[in-house]
């Protein structure tokens, strides 16, 4: 990513991100990111997919099929070449070492990197809830649909300020840093109350050890899961809409009932 001011860049410099590659563009989160990037009309979006992949990809996305299961990364490096951003959204069930392989190939190509049940203690099948620290610890959580516009709006910012007087948000201010977004700041008891208000039935689910560990860790009393209170959010800067907790509780229950998150976090 360029540094300094837009006015100081070489002739031909375009102060926006145009080319974005996505791994997992048909996945639980990746599909929202891909759709929202395409919706802006500002990006050429490329899905890097395996030859055997049968995932449904958004209309208008470029598709490059690459077999990166082996040690030879030549084809992968070539697929990444010319991309300005690489977004990796993969299932936790992906083979060990896959993400490291992708990152190394992206580095060779000169690409800057963009960075179910038993979830939150709920067991849909048993209709039970495990409360961590009494269920009073509040954490920040984001819906998959919210991640899409967050990434799309971020990558639609100018790369650099035009000059010394330009105070508008740019990608450069987030270089080597983090973006903090959140749909809701809620405790387990908040979740349970809105769950009781919904009409959806809790019937099915398939608890996995990894998501159980992952989500319970968020409720440690150290406040690690509540970054809003200590670090603030970038929702307003990115123009993210407010979401309705009851609406997404019903969606979450439906997803749990259908087992759509059994292999995902």
Number of helices: 8
What structural category characterises the helix and strand content?
alpha/beta
CA-CA gap between termini: 30 Å
Series of H and E elements: EHEEHEHEEEHEHHHH
Topology, number of strands: 8
Poorly predicted runs are 198-217
Strand order of the largest sheet: 3-2-1-4
Strand content: 5-15%
The general outline is: globular
- The level of helicity is 25-40%
Q: What is the average per-residue confidence, as pLDDT, rounded to a whole number?
A: 78
Major sheet size, sense and barrel closure? 4 strands, parallel
- Quaternary structure: single chain
Topology summary:
Blueprint: E1 19-23, H1 30-40, E2 44-49, E3 62-65, H2 74-80, E4 85-88, H3 98-109, E5 122-123, E6 128-129, E7 139-141, H4 144-155, E8 184-186, H5 188-197, H6 209-217, H7 227-231, H8 245-258
Parallel strand pairs: 1-2, 1-4, 2-3
Antiparallel strand pairs: 5-6, 7-8
Helix pairs in contact: 1-4, 2-3, 5-8
Outline of the structure:
The protein is an alpha/beta fold. The protein has helices at 30-40, 74-80, 98-109, 144-155, 188-197, 209-217, 227-231, 245-258, and strands at 19-23, 44-49, 62-65, 85-88, 122-123, 128-129, 139-141, 184-186.
Structure characterization notes:
- It contains 8 helices and 8 strands; from the N terminus they run E-H-E-E-H-E-H-E-E-E-H-E-H-H-H-H.
- The chain is an alpha/beta fold and 265 residues long.
- It has a 4-stranded parallel beta sheet, with helices on both faces. The protein has a two-stranded antiparallel sheet with strand order 5-6. It has a two-stranded antiparallel ribbon with strand order 7-8.
- Strand 5 and strand 6 form a beta hairpin.
- Helix 1 (30-40) crosses helix 4 (144-155), helix 2 packs across helix 3 (98-109) and helix 5 (188-197) packs across helix 8.
- The model is unreliable at 198-217 (pLDDT under 50).
């Amino acid at each position: 990513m360029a540094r300094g001011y837009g006015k100081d860049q070489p002739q031909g410099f375009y102060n926006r991100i145009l080319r974005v590659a996505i791994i997992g563009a048909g996945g639980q989160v990746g599909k929202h990111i891909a759709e929202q990037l395409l919706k802006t009309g500002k990006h050429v979006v490329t899905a890097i997919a395996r030859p055997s992949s049968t995932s449904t990809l958004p209309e208008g996305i470029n598709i490059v099929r690459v077999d990166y299961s082996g040690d030879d990364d030549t084809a992968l490096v070539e697929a990444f070449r010319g991309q300005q951003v690489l977004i990796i959204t993969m299932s936790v069930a992906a083979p060990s070492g896959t993400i490291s392989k992708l990152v190394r190939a992206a580095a060779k190509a000169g690409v800057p990197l963009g960075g179910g049940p038993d979830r939150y203690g709920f067991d849909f099948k048993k209709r039970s809830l495990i409360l961590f620290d009494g269920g009073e610890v509040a954490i920040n959580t984001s819906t998959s649909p919210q991640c899409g516009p967050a990434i799309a709006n971020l990558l639609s910012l100018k790369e650099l300020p035009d000059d010394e007087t330009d105070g508008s948000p740019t990608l450069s201010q987030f270089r080597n840093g983090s973006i903090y977004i959140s749909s809701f700041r809620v405790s387990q008891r908040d979740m349970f109350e809105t769950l009781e208000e919904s009409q959806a039935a809790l019937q099915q689910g398939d608890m996995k050890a990894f998501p159980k560990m992952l989500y319970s860790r968020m409720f440690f009393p150290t406040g690690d899961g509540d970054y809003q209170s200590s670090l603030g959010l970038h929702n307003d800067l990115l123009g993210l809409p407010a979401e309705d907790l009851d609406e997404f509780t019903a969606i979450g229950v439906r997803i749990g009932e259908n087992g759509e998150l059994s292999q995902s976090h």
